Amino acid sequence: MQKHDRLDALGSAATVGLCALWALSHVAVKVANAGISPAFQSGLRSLGALLLLCLWSWLRRIPLLSRDGTLAAGFAVGAMFACEFALIYWALVYTDVARGAIILYTTPFFVALGAHFFVPGERMHRRQVIGLLAAFTGVVIAFADGLTLPSWRALIGDGMMLAAASLWAATTVLIKASKLARIAPEKTLAYQLAVSGVVLTPFALLLGERGLFDPTTLVLGSLAFQTVIVAFASYLIWFALIRIYPASTLSAFTFLTPLFSLVFGAALLGERVSAALIVSLALVAFGIWLVNRPRAAMPV
After folding, report:
1. DSSP secondary structure string, 155-205?
2. Which of 6, 29, 157, 242 has the most beta carbons within 10 angstroms of its beta carbon?
């Protein structure tokens, strides 16, 4: 695959689509939490997506078990993936979809910092720093707006989301900086799904989670959406994009996810939308545009 130094039209469209799916998946998690306990739900999703991935790889003759020196890094990203999603699923028990998404998408700052130091050729320039700071200001405004409302219960969820954000960033940087960047994205995803599915499903029950306790049609449909569309299809596309486009630029673009989360949270869950949140999203959009401007268009 040909690598690019910035997002082109195809990469931008793909990333916007993924952002919408990920925002909707947060709604699906919150809905499914009413009938499946959080970590157990995450484990089931990973196991189901792993089966689909194995079938996909078999049909395309993509070897998932070949020896290529990626086992250690693969287990590392799998472990981080498991912890990240256990935190996300539990966080959505405590906090709103929109607030959780805004906090989760502090990820690009961790990614940009990690890529600057550990990924050759991805050092940040002044324009990118300004863009990230603009987007970060938007996140801070949204977070401050939310802090006027939540109880301590909501703040627990916020803390879980922030921890998940750092784990997501660490996963992205490790993929870019290790041999995982040179293997098929299917195998990278297989590592994450296998480790998280095998670990989270039994571990959740050992921790006393209820497991599947109210399997309504809506709950099972939400789990199916997370499994097929999100954990299988969207993550496969995401890892392919990581191989083609700069990690810091790609991750900054995902600031659109909180915008979609705001819309979906209000429309589907009746969550509150304030003027401050709208201002924060405008700053996020400006930051994304600035990060993705051609380098020659602005002195650095």
Report:
1. HHHHHHHHHHHHHHHHHHHHHHHSGGGGS-HHHHHHHHHHHHHHHHHHHHH
2. 29
Three-state SS string over 203-215 comes to HHHHCCCCCECCC
**Residue scoring higher pLDDT (24 or 154):** 24
Q: 36 φ, ψ to 5°?
A: -135, 130
Q: What pLDDT shows up at residue 300? A: 30
* Range with the poorest average pLDDT among 36-45, 60-69, 250-259: 250-259
Q: How many CB atoms lie within 10 A of CB 64?
A: 17
> Cα(54)–Cα(32) distance, rounded to whole angstroms?
25
Best CA proximity match to 53, nearest among 245, 254, 243, 237 = 237
pLDDT over 90 (residue 217): yes
What pLDDT, on the 0 to 100 scale, is given for residue 38?
Answer: 96
**Paired strand residues for 79:** none
2/157 Cα distance (integer angstroms): 40
CA distance 239 to 171: 11
Segment 243-269 mean pLDDT: 80
Residue in this structure with the two tokens 């998940």, named with its chain if needed: 164
Neighbours of 179 (CB within 10 A): 14
pTM above 0.85, yes or no: no
Model confidence over 153-205: pLDDT tens digits? 777 888 899 899 889 888 888 887 889 888 888 999 999 999 999 999 999 99
Average pLDDT over residues 246-252: 70
Beta bridge partners of 36: 212
Dig out the tokens for 236 from the structure. Answer: 């496969």
Distance CA 5, CA 249 (A): 9
What gap in Å lies between CA 104 and CA 201, rounded to an integer? 23
- Contact predicate 291/11, CB 8 Å: no
Which two three-digit tokens encode residue 113?
Answer: 């910092």
If we measure between CA atoms, which residue out of 185, 188, 232 comes closest to residue 53? 232
